[in-house]
Design a protein that fits this description.
Beta-lactamase
Length: 257
């Protein structure tokens, strides 16, 4: 009787989330991945949740913070557009793809840490704290080092809160100029097919013992927007592929794509 009532409530009030979506849970179990996934319609009326308790647990955002960080850098005038050149100083930054001049497009897609660290030096901790508060982003904390607080500092955010932030960003309900949000949306696009357009950012927290990975963003399909946030435990680099893979498989499972 309990399951009949829950089913009836879900059909009447589609925004109700079941604690764990069993179909999606089976994907994670089959692939031996511990994680949480939230998929939600832009209007919030439909939502699929796997691992509700983890979806409400906060983690370091890692490179997914490049989404709000891009907006902050543009708003502060640290960089003017997606075409402006970010000059490399000639020193080894750790990856061959980082050891060259960048633009916002490449810095975002390549997760170029040094680029955003340069932005952070100009923005400063006080401004970051104000933006985090204005955006209501996660726990709204930074840390001792303004250039690493999203990688190993005190900033943390849950998958559920990632969805809330993405919704406000997409609907332009954040304290940023529309032109800056449009630049962000442009550089977030990672895949365009005849049936959908995928916009997303990966993240990998690898500077602490309890490593985890992210894949957050949204997909435009059949005239609708679906938001998603996937957070997984990373035991080895081979697990990183599941950040995106489990999102795509779940979207297919739910017949969104």
């Amino acid at each position: 009787m309990k399951y009949i009532i829950v089913g009836l409530l879900a059909s009447i009030f589609p925004s109700i989330s079941i604690a764990s979506d069993s179909d999606i849970a089976s994907l994670y179990k089959t692939n031996k991945i511990e994680g949480a996934l939230v998929i939600a319609s832009l209007d919030g009326k439909v939502q699929f949740v796997h691992n509700k308790s983890r979806s409400e647990q906060r983690f370091l955002p890692a490179s997914t913070f490049k989404i709000p960080n891009t907006l902050i850098a543009l708003e502060e005038g640290v960089i003017e557009s997606d075409k402006e050149i970010i000059k490399w100083d000639g020193s080894d930054k750790g990856l061959a793809s980082w050891n060259k001049d960048q633009t916002l497009v490449t810095a975002f897609s390549l997760s170029c840490v040094w680029c955003y660290q340069e932005f952070a030096k100009h923005i400063g901790n006080e401004r970051y704290l104000k933006y985090l508060s204005d955006m209501n982003y996660g726990n709204k904390k930074t840390g001792k080092d303004v250039t690493t607080f999203w990688l190993e500092g005190h900033l943390s955010i849950s998958a559920k809160e990632q969805i809330d932030f993405l919704r406000k960003m997409y609907l332009e309900q954040l304290p940023f100029k529309s032109k800056n949000i449009q630049i962000l949306k442009k550089i977030m696009v990672v895949e365009v097919t005849p049936t959908y357009s995928l916009s997303a950012k990966t993240g990998w927290v690898n500077r602490i013992n309890n490593q985890h990975g992210w894949y957050v963003g949204y997909i435009e399909v059949n005239g609708k927007i679906w938001l998603f946030a996937n957070n997984i435990q990373v035991r080895s680099k081979s697990d990183l592929v599941f950040r995106k893979q489990l999102v795509i498989e779940s979207l297919k499972l739910k017949k969104i794509i």
